[in-house]
Amino acid sequence: MNLIIPKDYDPKLSVKETQKAIQYIRETFQDEFGKELNLSRLSAPMMVEKGTGLNDNLNGVESPVSFTMKGLPGETIEIVHSLAKWKRLALKRYGFGMHEGIYTNMNAIRKDEDLDNIHSIYVDQWDWEKVIAKDERNTAALKHTVRQIFKVIKHMEHEVWYKFPKAVHHLPDEIHFVTTQELEDRWPDKTPKEREDAICKELGCVFLMQIGGPMKSGKRHDGRAPDYDDWKLNGDILFWYEPLQHALEISSMGIRVSEESMLEQLKIAHEEDREKLPFHQMLLNGELPYTIGGGIGQSRLCMLLLGKAHVGEVQAAVWPEDLRQKCEENDIHLL
User: Fold this and answer.
1) DSSP state of 64
2) What mean pLDDT do residues 283-291 have?
3) pLDDT tens per residue, range 73-125
4) How distant, in Å, are the alpha carbons of 161, 183, 245 from that of 199?
5) What is the per-residue pLDDT for 110?
6) Domain boundaries 15-329, CATH class
């Protein structure tokens, strides 16, 4: 575990006040976000059947929490990693039209996560998805949506400042766009995470584009499952986070794969067998809408806006006792 203790850390709010701020941020943000992107709130599953191919493979190495149930003998049920593919199917099932979309509370368990100040095995995020036209599968449409999300986050900074003026963490006024290849070209000797830190420290906030595919060096900036994001039309919203002196990812999002890009990416990832799964067959048969979507971390957003040193200050999760003790000794009060 890599635990960072900020020098002279002051949590600003008591645990009780922090809980009130968490409630305010979560309730206010989802309303404003839904209105800005024309999204309706929807109920979503915490688990899916393994055989549907709906679960998110993340980097392809994390194994989901799974179990069997009395009512479905012989079928493996998995706790979701995210709802990346489920949302696209839901848009079809529920009859959403062009430029309409959904958002939902997504709660997941990622048991293989490496714990640190910003990573927990418990994931809580707003998962969202929106129908777009095929000719909107381009960089301009992606950037427009990113700017909409950044606008809502910036507005939340002002809202939180009004309610909790001593606690708000001030954010940059602009989001910048940069590709993973541009970072590799500029800093070939740095690791991907070091590049993220360097560009975020320089610019304040960036949307780092084109994650998942191999760069000119043959290496990948980071892993992405090959069957939901189009690796050429995706990215992460990253903020320079002064309390921890590194980049803080708030959202992973992108324009979703078309039939052609999914086949291309499955081949690159040597995952062609997934073509036979029900979700993938629907996509290949033209039965699913073209979409853009992603996830916005609820705890991460609370952490960012309140200037917290540890994600455990804004979410209740499971932590090793020695980590809890060290945090408490340094005024980092884990829930």
Assistant:
1) P
2) 95
3) 888 898 887 788 889 999 999 999 999 999 999 888 888 888 999 999 999 99
4) 27, 8, 12
5) 85
6) alpha beta
SS3 15: helix
Neighbour-count burial of 97, counting CB atoms closer than 10 A to its CB (0-12 exposed, 13-18 middle, 19+ buried): exposed
* Stated pTM of the model: 0.92
Query: How far does Cα 307 stand from its chain's mean position?
Result: 19
Active-site option among 224, 236, 265, 298: 236
Q: Give dist(CA 177, CA 228) in Å, integer.
A: 21
Q: What is the DSSP letter of 317?
A: -
Query: Would you kindly state where each structural domain of the chain is located, as residue ranges?
Result: 15-329
The Cα-based distances of 97 to 57, 84, 100, 270, 311 in angstroms read 28, 19, 5, 34, 37
Whether 132 and 152 have beta carbons less than 8 Å apart is answered as no
Task: Give the contacts of 52 (CB within 8 A, at least 6 positions apart).
Answer: 277, 278, 279
Is 252 marked active-site?
Answer: yes
Question: Residues 3-26: pLDDT tens digits?
Answer: 899 999 999 999 999 999 999 999
**Tokens (6 digits) for 324:** 């809890």
Q: How many CB atoms lie within 10 A of CB 14?
A: 10
Is 110 a residue of the active site? yes
The beta-carbon contacts of 315-322 under 8 Å, at least 24 apart in sequence, are 315/120, 315/122, 315/124, 316/122, 317/120, 317/121, 317/122, 318/121, 318/122, 319/115, 319/120, 320/1, 320/115
**Residues counted in the chain:** 335
Catalytic residue among 120, 125, 298, 299: 125
Catalytic-residue membership of 56: yes
Instruction: Verify whether residue 324 is a known catalytic residue.
Output: no
User: CA-based diameter of the chain, in Å?
Assistant: 58
189 an active-site residue?
A: no
